[in-house]
Amino acid sequence: MEKTRKLKLALLAALLFWGCGVPLYGQFYHAAQATTDFGSIPTSPGNIIGDMKTTASFPKMGSISSQDIDMSADTYEYIGSNLIARGHAVIRLKDMQITADSVVINLLTKDMEAAGNVIFSARVTRSILVSPSEYEAYLQDPAVKIVAEGISTSPDGNQKIKATLISNSAYMKAERASGSLETGSFQFRNFFIKAGFMYFTGTLADRYPNGTLKLFGARMTTCEYKMDDNAHYEVESAEMTLKPREANRSIYNYNPDHGEHSVLALNNLIRVWDLPILWIPAFYKPADSNTFGIRFEYGNSSRFGNYVRTSKEFELLSEPAIVRAAAIVDYYEQRGLGLGGTADILTKKSKTEFFGYLINDRNPYDYWNSGRNDAPDGYTEQEWIQKHSRFEIPTTRYELRLSNITHLTPRLDFRGQVDKISDYNFLQDYFQSRYNNDIQPPTFAALEYQGDRFSAMLQTVVKVNSFDTMLQRLPEIRLDAQRQELFKNIYYQGQTSAGYYKMSWREYTFSREQNPNINFNQILIDENRQDLIPVVNAFGKNTQAAAEYLVNVDPQAFGPYFTDPKDYSAFRFDTLHAFYYPFKLFDVLNLIPRAITRFTAYSQSSKEDMDVNKLYSIYADDQLDNWPPSTLKVYNYDDRGGARYRFTFELGLEGNMKIYRAWQDAKSAFLQIDGLRHVMVPYFNLVYMPDPTVSYKNIYYFDEVDQLEKQAFIRLGLQNRLQTRRNDVLYEWISLENYWDFHFEKADGFNQVGDLGTILKFSPTENLLFTTELLLDIGQNNDHDATVMQGDKDAGRPGISGNLINQLNMSLSYKITKDWILTGSYYYSDAYAQRTAYSMGSTLSQINSTSYFKSYFLRHQFLSLGLNFPSMIDDRLKGNFIMSYDVDANLFNQLSLSLRRDFHCWYVVAGIGTYAQRNANSDMTWPYYFNFTIGISAMPGMAYSATTNVSTGNE
Is the pTM of this model over 0.90? Predict the structure, then answer.
């Protein structure tokens, strides 16, 4: 008994040291940072390994006692100070297990040696509910074991399988392990290691006290068949170094599938089915990356020719902050060599990112030409460029971006970014995805404080790129008070801001006087000065001289045709205070009367009136890549109005009532219905705001604060919701909202009847979602007679052509089965003007929400369709079809088909696509392309991609 007690204590000390103090590799250490967590397990077989890895924990030292240890062996004995366990030695510590043929521990020196089939493993067991298809998927997953326990039936009649899921989250095997429990230095012979999604084998491994592992004669793979010594591919290395991530310090959570260790491998040979394929001198995988920090992309396109894009990431520092950097080297056959780099610095409370890129572009107009095609007959390239664009694109093109976010205190954050770009087309040319997300990256710095009852912000926004239009805040301070109770049933909400604002417009290369498209005859006809037509025609193609002549003749009449928006600025102080008194009438009708006051002061203003139409002339001229219409007259604010002080107020009444009925016995397994409840909420919102003391026409426009004008309308609406229960949670089966505005006064171009809006959301199951937004012009405030051009032909009004619909937007997403997924959308907008309903103190549903009081919309019509589908010849071969059609232009924006085949540890994607476009002669062409990708399934970022444009043919 005494020997058994001492054996338990000795093994306890050893296990505590192995499982908690000195990890075998980074994952063991990370797991020791938290107690064992037996939360819910995801039902996606594809994510099960990564999720289990992060939740499996080696027990903390303080939580372990001798009762937690279970051990067995054929024999135990002491020889001097050595404790020896022989024959099927098995040691279990909660979810951790060590097995070996024999274990020897010197109780004095704390040296340890385990020999013969030495295995260290951590096992996770979870109870889950899965569908039959998910159960089959787990059965086919070699990394987990699933055991069915029974059937569970939900209240709506759906049945799922109750099962236990078992997986080894950490695993190491060796013929022999020896070392010191005192220092943590160990050596392993003929080892096998499973670390996250990676597998390692080799002849010798040395573990150092800091947790670093050096592997010799090693092979590495992500293929799970390595467990059976049958990996599809491996990387054979003379020497590998694995360094553990010591802590998760970042303000962002790392993806656990990336692994908590870095890998440096030297003298590598890539093997596929054990055949040598490629020799690589060295590669490196950062600790929180799912690739080896390598990007390689090859392709061919009309604007680049053949091109290669590459990058390599390095980890420069891991303590006290994570510092990563990457080098970027790109080559474009038609453009030149592009060089760049990135750097990331992560600490517990901050993240800093840097990006830089430079290319000496031999042909900067290649992408520009792809949108307008090459110059037609009768034009030089420079004349063709100037005919369509107001900017010159330089040959030296670049971007420098620096951003930072820092949590200064639990309530105070700093965010900042500087983004300097060489020209307006750079991002669209070389970084299309970033351009699609943010066409005009801002430069700003902001301090944000979040209090219990208020929030405060100090920010500055500056313009660093001359080709951008930007509202500069130099700086601005803002204080927002959330709605809160002041006295018994009296609520207050407020906001106050102060700052110096400057509206900075684009600085064009070519002025409007240099516009080669000026229609002088039409301008003179509009101004009733046909007598000047012969004089102007005498200038020929010298449009600048002709424009200057007309401005000299009559600056007031002709000046607006040849001017651009001019910057304006002012200090502004604005404060708003709103009071609410909610109560219930007859225990049925909820009423919320409100009273709002607003005071705004300006240091400068305009003496000349600028109504909405004149303001829109500025925005109509402010085009990024095209000339504005030559007959457009642009009006600007002056700076002769001096300081102005504006006061306004709003009175309003909001009311609603809830009517509902429930059917507890309604059940449907197919529709996933467990009881039904219909909720109907009729509501109204009465808004009255008189004309402010200063007209918006004389106030500089920075945002919606400056455009206040009289509002007097009532919003009538009806909300309908059909709800059911899903797993004891309320679920909205379908919702429908209708709203309509009636204005008590007419406005320029509008009668008193507003638009009728309908918003529908239908989601009877988690696999089906259908939404519709419909805006009807029931007041007939618009003509609905806009036609479209298809090339150089007037195509009339294709598609929807009625005189009632202003806008229709429909979308559908339907997961028919696991592999059949259908998506579709249809968007239609007629050319129409809209009188926006506005309230300073209440929220109104809007299909179109803008900061302008009179909004104009152009005619557009698009149709898109997407389909994911399985193949009939192979369960692991999947397809994807995408179609996008511009109805008004009669052009297919995209037609593509791709196929993906998933193998056990890697995947292949091949696709073909085309799109239609019209050249300068209005002829339709169909460029098409092929793309190909091959990658590693466990490391999605580790892939090779190639794209090539095959041909361009005429219709």
Answer: no
